[in-house]
Amino acid sequence: MTKADIVSEISKTTGIDKACVLETVEKFMEVVKESLGHGENVYLRGFGSFIVKTRSEKTARNISKNTTIIIPEHKIPAFKPAKVFMEEVK
């Protein structure tokens, strides 16, 4: 399912214009990205949490040059589904 499919489904179900739904979905994604960018988690009760995880520093190998490189500690976005969400998917 794509973003366009989601917008169409919400528009069809609620009767709201597709342009308004698209603007709302776009703004939602923008707010989630900004919050995660500032290190803040986003909790949606009954759905799940968008969280920021910290990956620790690790050693990797560059096979083509036969060298070892160090990948520094960095943050990544992650999604953790709620128990209710997991039960419905099962």
Label this structure with key terms.
90 residues; alpha+beta; 3-stranded antiparallel sheet; two-stranded antiparallel ribbon; 5 strands; elongated
- What class would the helix/strand composition place it in? alpha+beta
**Termini gap:** 18 Å
* Helix fraction by DSSP (H/I, runs of at least 4): 40-55%
What is the number of beta strands? 5
Report strand order across the widest sheet: 1-2-5
Q: What is the 3D shape? A: elongated
Gyration radius, rounded: 19 Å
Calculate the mean pLDDT score and round it: 94
The unreliable regions are none
H-E order: HHEEEEEH
**Number of helices, counting only DSSP H or I runs of 4 residues or more:** 3
Note the beta-strand portion: 25-35%
Major sheet description: 3 strands, antiparallel
Q: In summary, what is this structure?
A:
This protein has 90 residues and is an alpha+beta fold.
Layout of SSEs?
Layout (H helix, E strand, L loop, with lengths): L2 H12 L3 H20 L4 E3 L3 E8 L2 E5 L4 E5 L2 E8 L1 H7 L1
Antiparallel strand pairs: 1-2, 2-5, 3-4
